[in-house]
Every structure is written in C-alpha cells, then in structure tokens.
Amino acid sequence: MTADDLSNYLNSPEQLMNISIEELTKWANKYPYSQHLKYLLWRKARQTDHPLEKTYEQSCAAYTYDRQHLFDLIQNFPNSKEPEVATIIVEKKQ
Known about the structure:
Layout: H1 3-11, H2 21-30, H3 35-48, H4 53-63, H5 67-75
Helix pairs in contact: 2-3, 3-4
C-alpha cells in the first residue's frame, strides 16, 4: 500500500472492497500508531461483518483524537449497522 492508496481509501471508502482485511491488518501492524489505518481496518471489518469488528472499533476509538468526528463518520456509513449509543438522562434539582 502506498500513501496514494491510503488517501484513496480514506476519500472513497467503498474502494475498501478491493483490499483484503489481512492486508490492512499487515499495514496496521507495520504502523501501529496510525489512526487512519485503524479507522480503515474497522470500516473494512464493518463492511464484511468480521468477528473482530468490536476489537477494531475499540482500537480505532482509542487512537482517534476527535471522537465526535469519528461518531459523525460512523453516522455516514452506508448500509452499516446502527452504532451503539448510550443515552444519559440528567435531572435538574430545583
């Protein structure tokens, strides 16, 4: 994978169907602090219903610097499962 490939996958995630999860894993292991590769690995796992999807999700969230942006990206996943969202209700005391 080249820098151009990485850029293409980030700009057009539907192209992830052209790469195997094993190849993405190889690159993520080679560059373990790359949040972009962690995001692409998780996205690929979601596309293919990979059994380690939750692990990749947790790793991606741990390495991202802006979780709100990550949440916004998730909301735009085409044909994806709904993300798990916890709702917190705060009652005001009067």
